Please model this.
Amino acid sequence: MRALQLLVLVLSSLVGAQQQALMDYLERRLLAIEDRISLWHEQTSRYASELREFKQQMVAQLEGLDKSKEALRSELDTVGTRVDRVEREMDYLETQNGAQPCVDVDDKLVEQQVTVVKERNKAKYAKLTDCSDMISSIKAMKILKRVGGTKGMWTKDMGSATGKVYILNGTDDNTVYEFGTVREFTSSQGTSGATSVQLPSAWSGMGHAIYNNHLYYLKQGEDMKLIKFDLQKNIVTDTAVFPVKNQLPVYSLNPETFIDLAVDEEGLWAIYATQENERHISLAKIDPKTLDIEQMWDTPCVRENAEAAFVICGTVYVVYNSKLPSRSRIQCVFDVSDMVTNDDAPHVYFPKRYGTHASLKYSPVEQLLYAWDEGYQILYKLQMKKKLEV
Model:
């Protein structure tokens, strides 16, 4: 019995020793874990502090970069403004005081140029396209807006489908108003929504044209100069003296216009008049790239009572004021390819309007006429038919 008690006592001692050893082990492990957690907290706090300091440094650097960027942008804008001003001044000086051999053309040289062109006229006109349309009637008329004075011109770029609308108000100015679309033009108050384009010199008359991102306009002085202005770069790219002396107003009802530039499917044309052929209107084909005169024609169309003209597929249509109140009609045509004679002139009356057309510009892209009438901007939709060989 005593031996059994002794055994139990020994076993109890062993179990107690094992439990104590286990508790000691667990306590050491927990202490080790606590140390690691404490170390992790310390490292995390240090990393967070370093990250905050790094963030503050980056924010400060970014603010410095923003300030530097704004300063650089301001400097670039200033430089750009100065460059634009210098370019405009240079363009102005070029148009005002061009090189003598290029701009000041004496009478003999002009006569030589005209003689060369007239020799070319003996040859048949070489068409650039297969266009054979002619006007049949005015299909519709739409009055879009009234902006500007009684005289002026409005148009799109007749050589592309950009959709931009250009307003040139008056007969002697140097500010072109550009709208992004017809909708922007009609919805704006006056010209408030337009981008203003300043030309280096004032235009003369209402015979301007916009073709393939370039404005072609006339400047009247001792010689009539044709100026080509890039509307994207806002610079003059070329000038030329129109090689005709003793010019007259091309339309008796709009005496401010001495040369009326027109665009059609074939390219750029000039409608003009001279004392040599005093009663009648003349026509010239112009190379839009070089401003050279390619061919010239004398038409049977008289200047008297004429108000405007335009060209379609190589045929010039002259519009006259009719005896009917506020009505105009096409009364004379001339075709450079001899496919249409004046006897074939369509008896087309324009719808009743306000007064006399100051300008008529044909859009070969849309087959529309852009008209300026007493400050009203009007669109005429044309009905076409095919020309017939005569």
Observations:
- The mean pLDDT is 85.
- Helices lie at 2-96, 100-103, 107-121, 182-187.
- The longest helix spans residues 2-96.
- The longest strand covers residues 133-146.
